Amino acid sequence: MTKPIALRSPGVAAALAVLFLALAYLLVGYPTLSPGLHLSGDDWAQYVNHACNLAFGRPYTDTGYVFNPAQPQVGPPSYSPGLPLLLAPIVRVFGVNIIALKSAGLLCMAGAICLTFLLFRDALGAWVAAAGAALFALHDGSWNLHDYIASEPSYILWSLAALYFASRPLRGRGLSAGIACGLFAYAAFSARPIGAALTIATIFYEIAQRRLFSWRFVCIAGIPAAGVVLQKHFFAVADYSGELHVLTLNVLASNFIAYWKQAAGVFPVGRHWPFSPFVVAPLTLLGIGYRLQRDPGRAAAASIMTRARDLLQRVPVDVWYLGVYCATLVALPFVQDARYLLPTLPIVCTYIAYALTRLLATSRYARPAAIAVCILCVCYYGGLHWLHDRQLPGDDALCADCRAMYSFLQNNTAAGTTIAFAKPRALALFTGRRSWRWTPDRDQESNWNEMMQAHIDYIVLVAPAHPLAPMYPFYLSWDAWRSNPRLSLMYENRTFKVLRLQRHDA
Q1: CA nearest 425: which of 52, 35, 33?
Q2: Which among 165, 171, 172, 173 has a CA at the least distance from the CA of 223?
């Protein structure tokens, strides 16, 4: 007869605590989902437009967003299909329902909390893994992701799932774990192309474990590669190769410093003090160092080469991933943003928890010190949530004036009309019209020629106090347009003006 598992055992108690945490994340997160969307960042609009195309059988790239090669930072012509595939069933059932769409990210984050615990439970101990999951779940950056339509939640979930299966001991199930790892690694790549770092890290890990010539390795390396080939065949996604350039030491150093500053924003101490990485990075490395320590009962290696090989075999797959992912961020030529660091939070938080646990274990006053550390973490996290920058006034893409402007354009312009707006992807989603953005740093004549080439029919202006106003050149400000005889006012409310542009070819 099988002996029942004692509910008081540390592993079960920790697992129940993490499960309760994930459920609390869902129960608290769902009622706090806001029906609004940030207009200042409209990546979500392109994801939703792709999802609509998948849900209703339209061409994947037919989003209405007209890409301006001179403004690649606005967004690529199309995104990877990972998040749109996740959102497509929701769109099919509920339509463009903002709460329903945000619920997908909420569920992904709850799953990521549980997978953080599973990934580290066996190696670092159940309560350390639970502490890491809690630090990750309660972090201000992690919590805020639940209220966005963004690719980060799904990417974090799939990458943790791939790492979990890659870290599983063989025990006769190496092939099935390899297949699962390959599938989740491709899912991560389809959510964010930087997921290629995950596949590279798992390949390095398998090579270090001397499993190069195995079916497991073939699955881990081959399934993501096959997925990329199929993705290029069925989805015309954007190719970022044109933005890559030759790396120099100056570029790498500049990118490293920029991400160091962004890391200070992930764990801020004050407004502009880049000092927190001096605490977070050493604690993370200390936790990794504790894990890599040799078993005291194991004989010392005979040579440097043997020691190096032994060290590589002891490096876990999550550490390989952390190193490759951070190195990839530093090498990429894209804008340095703190949100790109959020996928490392589960790993960083867990190793910080492990380092603190090992340090406190040697203290004479371990229990009082642990209580003090917990109180400090609660106060710090509470301060992060309290001081979090809220949405700017007027930044809601679904405000009353926004809806009125969308409605006017939808009902009073012809299909195929092209409209110039500071946030073209949001406008394309809610109006069903083509939308484009100008190049702000060009002179007036160049911009007008640019608009003629893009076949612009209408221009949407914003009020001077609106957060998007700085994106407009002076001759497209709230009142300066009146000096141009080719522009005529078609619609106006407190926030927006719609101007008709008379083109030479019209």
Answers
A1: 52
A2: 165
